[in-house]
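Lab notebook, bench 4. Still working through the backlog of constructs that have no structural model yet. Next entry is a single chain of 867 residues. Request: give me the structure tokens for it.
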Amino acid sequence: MAVTPPGSPEATQGLRRRVFDPIICENDDDTHLAASGVEGRFFASGRDYESAFVNHKYTEKEKEELQKYDSLDYLPPWSDAYQAWLRQQPKRLDWDRWVMMGLIGFSVGFLGFLLHQFIDLISETKWDVATDLLEKGLGVAWIFSIGYSLIFLLPGVALVVWYRPSAAGSGLPELIGFLNGTIIRHIFNIRTMFVKFVSCVFSVGSGMPVGPEGPMIHLGGLIGAGLSQFKSDSLGIKPDYFKRFRNSEDRRNFISAGAAAGVASAFGAPVGGLLFSMEEVSSFWNMKLSWQTFFCCMVATITTDLFNSAFSAFRYQGYFGMFRAESNIMFQVDSTLTTNILAFIPSAILGCMGGLLGALFTFLNLKIARARRVLLSKIANPSLKKVMRCLEPCLILVIMVTLSTLLPAAFQCTKFQCYETYKGQQQITAEGSPECATATLGDNIPPRTEDTVSRYTCSPGVYFTGNDVTTTNKTYNEVATLLFVTGERAIKHLFSRGTHNEFDIGSLMTVLVFYYFLACWTAGTSMSSGLVVPMLLIGGLYGRIIGQAMVNWFGVNSQNNPNEVYWSWIDPGAFALIGAASFFGGVSRLTMSLTVIMMEITNDISFLLPLMTAIMFAKWVGDYFTHPLYHALLELKCIPFLDSEPVVYMDGSHLLNLELFRASDVMTRDVNKLNPIVSVRALCELLLHTQHGGFPVCVPPAAGTQEESVYFGLVNRLEILMLLQYPDVFIDTPENQQTENKSGAKLRLDYQKVHIDRLTNASEVYATLEKYLDREDMKDKSLDLTPYINRSCLAIPDTFSLHRTYIIFRTLGLRHLPVVNERNQIVGVITRKDLMGFKLEEKLNGKAVNTLEHLNDGDKTTLETSA
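Model written out:
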């Protein structure tokens, strides 16, 4: 390893970046990544067009970015200091943990209520006024819509760009990376929470093709992190309540519960929130956490529904505590249909379409993100670069508002329609047919047009009110019904049942093309936003197209015709629901949680099996082309991530069986070892010249023997740096460096200060280390590390199975895994970066080739496993 001279700018920056300020590849500085080979390989398909079963290809610069991240150790160091601190804590009870889960659930539920109410207030005001202005002309409505939207969008974007870049996007990749074991800067800061909330309200309310659900999940994790620690470094608040939860393991569990509560509040889906956190967000789980998270999700959903009912009773006609389905279920389905075995055929087709379009969405999103980095890297002025980041969402907004306001004018108005029977029969409109004009689902009247469609500039018509009133047909605009409204209202129209010919295929296709590419472009811009609403809308559009095509081919069923009951499952709204789930699954590759969420947000169980079919096909097809979107964004942001199961190929073709390799094949050698008592100067030199996060401690052999030092435990870098800030803990260097009484060493610093208070000022600590190297009185000073040695740090023999090494490391959430030989002497250390897929391929490919050369053809299959 190259040595960086102490005091150099490189040493200062390396110390600050590595130890005190673990980074995220933030949106305000991507120049280093743009210069990493991305620009030259922008159109190379191997960068983003790669199956989920192969490892991502990182450039050399990106590998350097990976190395800058520090990892979490979810198991507290079992040392003398930790045990002494543990004895001082209150008796371990479970009731306070349940109380904390309830507090998190209530807080997330109330925040979700506020988020949706503010968004609805802004967006409904915009569309109501714009609708009234249509009577004065399209130009007036267009100018108002753009001005009104920019008033809200600009502050939301500016807060992210100038104040807190870590609040951009949905926050899900960063949340997943953190819960996988990687420290990511600022994602659980109270300032991030404020910016996230405000930016999400403004961006969604302004009419951008985004949704609030992704940010709501991040906000739930933020609340889980903040409430469980019951302190704030930004506000300088640090009370003693719940201080026993101030450790990485409990913090991780509460963040997982908060994220699940965010899903529960955003969708009104408590079971879906639990499964989402288990399936996608969290890497570590147990049954006890399942019960507690279930309780947290339940409290969050009840809180949101309760405040919604109170607000509805206050603002509209209603009663406090009455949970009305149309208010608390996002996309309430008014009627259910009988499922037919034939429905599985179009469901499978929709699943394949969802996988293809979802993979394309991921591919294009990554390409746009890389292009954005390349273009911004060419701007030398940082302020100008931030201005450009603000202008990009504004440009998208202008295009979106223009399409929403002016595109419907290119389409003719459509009459309200009611269909009496099967194809070949004449359709009956409202004129001259009072039964059709007043019919609703449930009557013996055929499907009809919804009353809530957008009139736009079309003729309002006259309702049938009696024999004395001449009735005329109302008309509406199909494209305006999907674009001149909020995204959630458009999805409700697509999911509506019994509206067989409410939308024409041409209108649906036009909206699909424009909205697809705008949503893909918007994802990744510098604002807080989510993708759930766009994914549901896009999937609902092509699902409705398939459903409408089936109606055109097979005709419209009539409830009056018993012969056509067999075909009653052909409903465009039902296939819009299946299409929405398929695209959601094709982008995210979720399965269990997605199925439950779709059931909970529609209250429709009749199409469960076709829905599951579409989701499974979407996952299978999507995995063949790209990684899941959130995992792909982890790779784009250079955040280290360990998947549940390692996948390693030899020469890109043969899947290797890791059970046939050893831990020694991937470990990092030439480890820096420490004695239990070590001089202060040696520690300063070590910390300034290396960036390792932990150091094995070895007991030196007895004087006069030829034995080597034996592994004793591990001490991490943070502990040493904290101890070096307090000169009163130093001791005079003894003649014999051995520690005769390992368990009776004096505790020289409280565990609370080392592991909970942590370091806050990198520059001061660096300056202190530099001073120690120059001070003469430090030549004879040493530091006794014995009280802080983690004696329960797992260690494995160098002959240990590599596959089982990976499972142990990831399952326990380790940060360092020392490797010892048969004499219990340190020979290497395994870290998170050593076990990443691309790193395993680099280290194992040569060994696998050498192994295969000594095997005959019949034995090669024992080393290779077919993909």
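Notes after review: The mean pLDDT is 81. The chain has 31 helices and 15 strands. Flag for follow-up if needed.
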